[in-house]
Structure formats: structure tokens, C-alpha cells
Queue: 3 jobs
Job 1
Amino acid sequence: MSTIDELKKDIQFQTELKGHALTFNSTWGIFSPREIDSGTDLLLKYLDIKPGEVALDIGCGYGPIGVTIAAHAPQGEVHMVDKDFVAVDYANKNAQQNGLSHAKAYLSNGLSAVPKDKVFTTVVSNIPAKVGKEMLSIILHDVHQHLAPGGQFVVVTINGLRQYMKRNFMEVFGNYDKVKQGKDYTISRCVKK
């Protein structure tokens, strides 16, 4: 078999996230295909999830955050969205292979394809540094609309975006909590009042 044929095969790895043994398939061209990136890992360590959580993972990639939330919230419901059809395909495959039928992924630019009447108790995102302030504004306002009162929006960003997130959370939600700052990443949280 040629090297190219080898590269085209699915990448598969096992990992433990929030106390759950999970198997992930991914492929080249998706963010962090061989392992859980350190930002996602940090977010999951500090994310508070209840068994009946109704959650949304924005920019889900192959699904490590959404799939972990689903494993942790067996009575819940998890929506995973990404603008990349390959990522969506793998996120659905990963939810299925881990036996999590209450998690589904679909194509959406931010929350554009999320059902208008859907209300979430938790929204999460590993926000890419290059997201752009316009798209981030759209996401923040859309999340605010879709969050239940008392619902949380928790993001991980590179440390350089920490103050930016704080300003935007204060502007849209009126509150901001720096949950954890690591060497490279910061977990920020706000709550819909």
C-alpha cells in the first residue's frame, strides 16, 4: 500500500475525557486529527455538565467536546455544528461509534442552521483565533438568543483573546468569569441572566 493510501485512511485513537473512555475517528484536514488538543482538554476539565444538559457545540470538528458532553449527560441532548461537511460527518460517526444516539452534528455557519426555537442550557466552543470579530459578534448574539435563562456559554480561546472575550461577554451577557487560565489557553464563561 502506498504512503498516500495510508494517509487517506481514518485516524483512530482512544482517550479518556471527563472519566469516559471514548474512541474517535478523524482525518487529515480537520483540526487536531491525532489527539485532543490542549485547549479542548482544558475546557472539558473545567466544564460543568449536568445529566440532562441540552447542549450546543459550535465549531465541533470531529466532535470531541460534543461527544464528551453526550457521554456525561445521558438524559440530555447534544447538538454539534460545524461549517465543514467533513467535520460534521466525523462528529456523527464518533457519536454513533460511542453509542451516543442523543448527539447529532449538522452543517451550520455559527448558529445559522440551529432550529430557531431550540433552547440550550449549555453552549460551548473552542473558538479559533482567526474567527474574525464580525462572526464572533453574530455567534455571541445568536447564543444569547438560544440560551435558557441561567444557561451558560463556555469558551476556550488562546490567552491573547482573553480580554476580547471578557469585553464581548460583558457587552452581550453583562457578566464574565475567567474559569481557568493555562499556559496557552483561557476558559471564559458567562451566564444568561
Note: The mean pLDDT is 96.
Job 2
Amino acid sequence: MTSGVPAAPLTDEELTSLVEGLAGLPYGGEAVDQRTHALQTAWLARDAGADDELVVAAALHDIGRARTGRARPVRAEHPGLPHEVAGAEFARRRVSERAAWVIAQHVPAKRYLVATDPAYHALLSPASIASLKVQGGPMDEREAAEFAAHPLSADAVAQRRRDDAAKDPDGPRLTMPDLLAAHARCVAVRRT
């Protein structure tokens, strides 16, 4: 594992390579590849009025899944960690602490929603239902209360809902220029 010391922000070339490196990679039995899912999630975030930091987090939320391609270094830097933790460790160093927390919590947010929203389970795809079992199933009352008490829990829940909706092969996607512009604004804020 890498240290928690912040590294230089991603360059445009690095961010482009990471996202483009997801093209063609299967996304857990869903009808979209990982690149389509990432850019569709980012589009949904922007469409919902999310700020730039959350748009970038949406695009990178599954970056820890990539086992091949140009995005593989994220997984290689954090072997053995669940994808959300590997992605969060990467984002903590290269994007921001807030983006890292939202990325880390997008799986627990699914567990939270299954436990607290009676209609949510019916919205899950078969692949997401199968992964829920591996991820620990619904949160218990204590876990749900702790999750809800975190000041960024609403951001993680919103990310989870976008994640669930971003599985349409014909759905809208954020363009790379728009993602790069959002990231550039994040970098400018990070430097101030």
C-alpha cells in the first residue's frame, strides 16, 4: 500500500488514461463496460447539480475494479483491497479526502439503502443483488445509524443511487473534456 501522503493531482493525461483504460472492461455482468459506467455516473452527478469534486468522484468511484488495461495501476498499488477501498486510497492521494470518502462508502451506501429504504432493493440489478450478498448484505441498525451520522453520508447515498442508475448502454455520458474541466477546477481549489 502507498502512504497517505498526498501526491500531485492527476494530470489531464493521467485522468484520460485512467478513464479510457476502462473501455471494454466488463462491469460485473452489467450491459455496460466500466468506462461507460464511469462516464454515465459522472453525467448523472453533474445533471443532479453535484459539485466538481463529486463529479470527479463519480467518474472514479470504481477505478479500483480495473485488473487490466491502463487503469490497472490503481489495483496494483492496493492489492487485496476491495475495489472501493483501493479506489479511495488512490483518490485520497490524487483527488481529495472528500472524494475518497464518497468512493469508499459507495458500497456501504448500498447496504445502508437496502436496510433503510423498503423500495430500494427492487431497483437493484441482478448483478448488484448478487454482489450485495458478498458485500455483507443489509446493514444492521447500529451500522445504519453510524453511517447516517457521518456528515458526508448524503453524498455517498446520492453517489450510490447514481451508480445504480448508470447501467444503460444508450444512456448519456459525461464527455472527457467536461470531466477534465471539472477536475481542473478541483485542482485549482486544492491548490488554494
Note: The mean pLDDT is 90.
Job 3
Amino acid sequence: MNSRKSLDRVPSWVPATGHALRHVGVHFDAVRIGGFLGEDVAYRLMEFTDFHAGPIVREATGERNLHFLLPPESAAVHAWPAPARALSREGRSAAFVGIPALAGTTWPLDWRSRPTDEDPFVDPGLLYEMVTRAVR
């Protein structure tokens, strides 16, 4: 493991155990992409960033959404192509994202890519480019 990319401090929005709902727009914005397309975008992003993409949360049940966590107030900057959905404080209703702990039992959520001190969020512009390429 590359120690330079280790998580020295756990972000305040990551629970110590299990998982917890966090209100989008407070600590982060998010882009939600479901199923195979979400996995494809996550892999493209991780491969491009040498597997240091920033925080991506994966759901193991239901629509199997992936949530790409962006800096606060950054999701609304782009017009995300369908089926990607921006979640921010700018939305018409309150949105919440389930956040797993970094260790222990967190089912049905897990980290596809964890936050680090160097990469506390997914880069919005890079994510937009990867989503655009994947939906073509």
C-alpha cells in the first residue's frame, strides 16, 4: 500500500462503525449512478487516477447505486447526462447518502474507493468527463 495515500484523519462525516445517512450539501455533494454504468464509470475514474479517485460509495442491494462524493456546492456546476443524477443542496428536495464506516460490518454499503487526505473528494470535472464518455 502506498502510505502517502493513506487516510491519516477520518473525515467527520464517516461514521466510526456501521453506516449512517448524511445530508447531501453539508459535507459533500454527490452524483448517483446505478448498476453497470456506475461500476463502469467508477472503474474508468479509478484507472485514470491510478486507483486514487476519492470517495465512491457502493450499494449492494436495490438498484446497486454508486455515489461519487464531490466537494460541497460542486455537483450543480455540470449538466450531468442521464442516468447520472446530481445530488446537492440546490436540489428540489433533501437528499441523503448512506456512508459506511472505514472498517467492520457495513453491509449493504461499502467503499469502492475511500477518501484520503490527498483525495478527500472525487474531482467533479474529471467525473463529468468519465460519465460523458461512458454514456456515449
Note: The first helix runs from residue 35 to 48.
